[in-house]
Amino acid sequence: MDVAEFRALILDKRLLLLFDYWQRIRGDRAMPDWAEIRAEEFAPAVPFVWAWRLDENGAVRLRLAGEAIVEVLELNIRGKTPFDLYAVESAQSIDDRFRKVMGDPTCSFSIGEVGHSGRAVGLGQRLVLPYFDRKVGRRGVLGGSVLDKNDRSADGGSTLYELGGHEYFLGIP
Hints:
With 173 residues, the chain is of the alpha+beta class. The protein has one domain (3-171): Beta-Lactamase (2-Layer Sandwich). Helix content is 28%, strand content 34%. The protein is globular and about 40 Å long.
């Protein structure tokens, strides 16, 4: 899959803005440096953006989460690992995805039905992009998640939604 094909999969304009910004700042490198990322340059996407990074022990930890994500969850998730937030199977899948995106490096885009409490609540999209934090010498992922609910009564509260569907990868030369 080439960049144009990958980009065409992204339906949400906020995630598309994030992807285009990331492409621009990385230039001809595999990934941008964390210090180069400027939230004001993708402001409409910021409430839906999150970032994870490898900590000093190699665990994947949440670095930041946008306002829309925090509002849905109604709990402080900063500094948590996927294993702190999700059931083991889901946490392992998330951890594996983030390590693949950081390590290969690659980009990931997922789209499909979102579930909550065993029922479908809408269409979700997730974009995952690698970055390098030169200051601490560790990799991380910057991404965004959006949910278009078809069931307005399906509030998550302190529950995380599950995104099923298709996942696409874009290898970075």
